[in-house]
From TrEMBL:
It comes from Natronoglomus mannanivorans. Residues 377-386 have a biased composition (Acidic residues). This is Cell surface protein. Its cofactor is Cu cation. The lineage of its organism: Archaea, Methanobacteriati, Methanobacteriota, Stenosarchaea group, Halobacteria. Residues 372-413 are annotated as: Disordered.
Amino acid sequence: MTDRLTRRSVLQTGAVAGGLALAGCLSGDSEDLNYEIWALDQGTNTGYIYEPGEDEDSFEQVDSIDFAEHQGEVPHMVDFTADYEYAVVACTAGARTIVVRTEDREVVANLETGPGSHFAGISPDEEYIHVDVIGEGTIKRLDADFDEEEFEIVDEIVITEDETVQDHGGDFEGRDPICHQYTQEGYSYHTLGPSYHDGGLVIVDHDDFSVEKVLHGDDDDVPTNCGTIPHPTESKFYTTAGLPAEDPEDGIGEYFVFDTEENEVVERESTGGVDAHGFWYTPDGEELWVLNRQTDDGLILDPETDEVIEEIDDYGPAPDIMWSSPDGEYMFVTLRGPEQQSGSPHAAEGETPGFNVLSIEDREIVTTVEPDSIDNYSEEEIEDGDVPTPDFHGIGVRPIGDYDSEIPNSPPF
């Protein structure tokens, strides 16, 4: 996408009849079109950047970023500006949010946003970055000027001290912001956690940065504690809620559908597995994929009807976050390592840290990418908490070239 298309303009003018415009609707010379996969290894504090290889279903590493050089320990999740010129990475152990210029991988901002900075999301008008900070129980607001590459922390919402939250009643100690995304009505939905039993939802007016509504408690039981994603064109929003268990029969995997005009739950269903977490759309907007971390499986929903289209039997061992390729061919899914750097109580022990590549058409794994094979580490090193070992969590896909798309390949839409 070559023009600087702000997310606010997309929300105002980008509604596409029948669903999300295909990010793979291309113009120009197809040889000039490509994309990058940004995969975050929070175990070794490395961001790996891959591109499609010459062979079918192959991918080649083209670059890497050492976040530890910038005190960015445990780079956890990534978000992009609408033109994909900047990436924003929240680093939980590093207690900071890092802004990277994507073309040359240069770090242009490094802000101490607080311990457990879990997800940093760019507002629809791209004037702010909002950060869910687990360790402080806060939502931080950063003033963002991407053109001048200037960023500053300007405000925060403290969950336990906010007046609207207090008026709602109930104990919010330990119910901390986890993830968020933005609705077409001008709100951001922030899930709470980290445990399912700490779950809930805080709805923020992102223009004046104030809490609009809280959903938690006996009257509005919404224990959502994981992923967030808006519908691309309709007034709907999806969240997940998960709880792992030694006996999977005792675990929980759920997804919620919200009416974002009324800010109310309209549907609550099982994901068919345990510890529901990541989800993503296919670029034509016709499918919403959902995964379960503990049982390695998931569902495909029809975003128009919210009915289950199909089941995914196997995402790979300990899957976490996913993102689709802009041409609609692949779904990329991160895989956790045997030594988890984050996620408690959702820490899922993996086998092959890296990311799986699934064929969207066939619903099957076509290859596994392991940037730093776990076979390079001994059992002693894996068990030694002082030895960094691979553990992948966040992933993002950055289109390169003149993709003729009404809506970017990432929310908000």
